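Case 464 in the screening queue. Each case pairs one protein sequence with one candidate compound; here the compound is zinc ion. For every case the pipeline is the same: read the inputs, emit a complex structure as tokens, and attach any notable structural observations.

Predict complex for case 464.
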Amino acid sequence: MKLQFLGAAREVTGSKHLLTVNGKRILLDCGLFQGHRKEAEVKNRQVLVDPTTIDAMIISHAHMDHIGLIPYYVKHGFNGPIYCTDATRDLSSYMLMDSAFIQMREVEWMMKKGKPFVPPIYTEDDIPPVLQNMVTIGYHRETEIVPGVKLTYYDAGHILGSAIVHLQIMEKGAAHPVVLTFTGDLGRRGLPILRNPEYIPYSDYLICETTYGNRFHKFIKDVDKHFKELINKVIKRGGKIIIPAFALERTQEVVFHLNNLMKNKDIPHVPIYVDSPLAVNLCDVFARHPECFDKEINQEFIENFKNPFGFGMLKYVESVEESKSLNNKDEPMIIISASGMCEFGRILHHLKNNISDPRNMVLIVGYQAENTLGRKLVNKEPSVKIFGDTYPVLADIEVIDAFSGHADRSDLIDFVGHIDGLKKTFLVHGEQNQGLTFGEILKQNHNDLDIAIPNLGEEFEIQL
Ligand SMILES: [Zn+2]
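Case 464 output:
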């Protein structure tokens, strides 16, 4: 039995791990590389395994760095089942369509400008065959996916429908099964909306994400206080608050907190615009999956008949005209828009129009990968390039990192500490220094833990 790391190896994006057992090949996640455009372009097209030789895919959750290359693999001959939870399938349909749409618009834009361009990795036509091959499995439903390999999903508490992949693998000729667990992305304990990540009592091998292996998050209960101070400061001086947020999960979390703040009269009633057609669709998916919520949200939905993702001052902006009209309004408002790392989408127009006005504030509430515009803002660069033009950064740049949907160091140590029997732990999905530091810390906390931080393409033999 072999395990090969084809992405998220000493970096955060492109999650992809290939398990070979009993002559079958199973790909755990099929994520897109993100970050520096040219480098990502090359990496995404450079397929390290022939898609026609893969028998099945197991998907952990619907973030693009975990699902974003599925259409490319299907287009190039992968025709097996794609296992995921029900909510992951519903979210994936919108997420992948949106990704294809953005790629196609970018190519159109380059053509219009007479610039050299490469064709999109996939188009909207490539998405239906992906959805056709998705096979959904609920949490805790043990299912044999290829001969000798049983899959059980546990709640990862990271985004709607996110799952820890738990595999019981009986290799031909072996006396006992090997248990392999892949965290996907692990959520945090005590976050609103979703349940806490579930503990895994036993596993021989673990593939563990380390996005925030070297950090401690602020307490989520401080978010409302921090939010309240910043929003009131900007509204007082007549400015706008621009919040780049992923349409999936972060937007719903921010909306949830703003709803609470307004309900408690902690911030004034200013308009809140969710300017992302994708976010509108995703909020709809949220309403259809009560099996994924924690008790509090279910109470709002089911007992109080209230939708915490839709309230008085909240407006979902769908049309481009409406989006553009926000630029002409010179009044305090909150605009939540995608993409979350400020790489593409309507957020770029809002940044272009607002970043050089000192009354405004850009409020960063999500992870910003290296080389993204979002990271440049966090690094307080004095000016930034948007659509080829340079803009001075005069608006305040503030970061609330308590919003993270990723486990931090204490969550990860706690999660690993609950697993008995670990023979080897592979650290993935973290920038190199996060992985190295976390590896040391993990060894200090859990004696004798055998840790590997795989390089891209590196292969390991897995056995009892
Ligand atoms: Zn994720």
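Case 464 observations:
- Residues 61, 63, 158-159, 185 surround zinc ion (CB under 6 Å).
- The chain has a mean pLDDT of 92.
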